[in-house]
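User: Could you go from structure to sequence for me? I need the amino acid at each position, not a summary. Structure tokens:
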């Protein structure tokens, strides 16, 4: 039966196999495979690309089995070192000029900076830092600033201010240039007294001086300036204020519009008219007066009266009555006269007019007073300076 191999590619001889030669296999396992995994060091050369290490079923020397991997060659930028998917400790010595990221085909990675060495552990899935805690650490030389140190072995020799054991830093001395904005400073050695500081991105902070008394900080959407409060209105703009005095930046108008009402127009504004003061027009008004009448003449319209509308009356009349026929051989007798009779009562049904004229005169009228004393709010007009 053929031999099998461990993750480190140590040859595992099947029982009864390799009679007479098993010693050679065992010596290779111990002297090559195990020594490489425990103390071995191998070179890994980059050539402007990533490098992938693999292990094959052989106890002969293999780079991916070694404990220490010396990275060299020309990287041409940050590169990846893909390790075999086995559980193994590695000491990575990055001798290249760029960052090398140690990884598996997937999972977490460890980036090793140029010219540094570190222990990493490969779990076969993830690559992690092998050490995250040291109880003590003693350096043979000062830790460089680029590595997070001060570049000095004593606090007095440090190039940077250090926080004391019992108190914070209270002052800095010896600065020859102003701290830049990126360094936490303003980028300037001095500022105008009482001025407002204005941020300028990464450039030095600028200032805006107070200007005249009563000024306010005003923005035009890009920059800040010190300007009078009325600076937001064009000079000459007139507005209404419900107060006694004009605000700062405005002048009260005391001549134009006293006792005026306002009228909204769709045409040109700003005009005035009328002669009566507001409080005179809007007060209690009496309803009384007289009307003059002169030169009136005419007639009433013609009207035809109906029978019921005229006075009741009768008309008298006289009439002859025919004589009797008997005794005159058929000839009528002399006609008798009947008088003192009247017709039935009736009206005439005629029409008439009534003329009239009036030369002149007056009529008076009175009524309940109308109260026009409406409520109002006193306002002033003021013009922007």
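Assistant: Here is the amino acid at each position, in order:
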């Amino acid at each position: 039966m053929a031999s099998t191999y461990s993750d480190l590619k140590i040859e595992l001889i099947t029982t009864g196999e390799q009679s007479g030669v098993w010693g050679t296999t065992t010596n290779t396992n111990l002297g090559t495979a195990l020594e490489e995994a425990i103390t071995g060091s191998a070179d890994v050369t980059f050539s402007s690309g990533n490098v992938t290490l693999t292990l094959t079923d052989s106890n002969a020397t293999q780079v991916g089995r070694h404990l220490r991997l010396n990275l060299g060659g020309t990287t041409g930028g940050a590169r990846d070192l893909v390790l075999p998917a086995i559980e193994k400790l590695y000491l990575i010595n990055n001798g290249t000029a760029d960052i090398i990221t140690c990884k598996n085909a997937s999972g977490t990675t460890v980036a090793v900076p140029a010219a540094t060495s570190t222990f990493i552990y490969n779990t076969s899935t993830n690559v992690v830092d092998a050490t995250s805690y040291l109880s003590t650490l003693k350096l043979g030389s000062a830790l460089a600033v680029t590595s997070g140190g001060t570049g000095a072995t004593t606090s007095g020799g440090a190039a940077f201010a250090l926080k004391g054991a019992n108190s914070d830093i209270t002052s800095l001395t010896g600065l020859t240039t102003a701290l830049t904005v990126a360094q936490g400073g303003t980028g300037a050695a001095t500022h105008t007294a009482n001025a407002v500081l204005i941020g300028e991105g990464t450039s030095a902070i600028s200032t805006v001086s107070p200007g005249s008394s009563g000024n306010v900080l005003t923005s035009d959407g890009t920059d800040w300036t010190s300007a009078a409060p009325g600076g937001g209105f064009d000079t000459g703009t007139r507005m209404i204020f419900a107060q006694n005095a004009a605000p700062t930046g405005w002048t009260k108008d005391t001549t134009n519009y006293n006792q005026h009402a306002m009228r909204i127009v769709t045409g040109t504004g700003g005009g005035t008219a009328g002669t009566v003061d507001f409080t005179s027009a809007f007060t209690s008004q009496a309803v009384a007066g007289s009307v003059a009448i002169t030169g009136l003449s005419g007639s009433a319209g013609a009207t035809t009266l109906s029978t019921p509308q005229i006075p009741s009356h009768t008309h008298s009349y006289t009439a002859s009555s025919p004589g009797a026929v008997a005794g005159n051989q058929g000839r009528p007798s002399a006609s008798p006269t009947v008088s003192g009779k009247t017709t039935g009562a009736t009206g005439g049904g005629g029409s008439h007019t009534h003329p009239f004229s009036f030369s002149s005169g007056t009529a008076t009228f009175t009524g309940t007073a109308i109260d026009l004393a409406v409520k109002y709010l006193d306002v002033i007009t003021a013009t922007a300076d």
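One structural detail worth keeping in mind: The chain has a mean pLDDT of 84.
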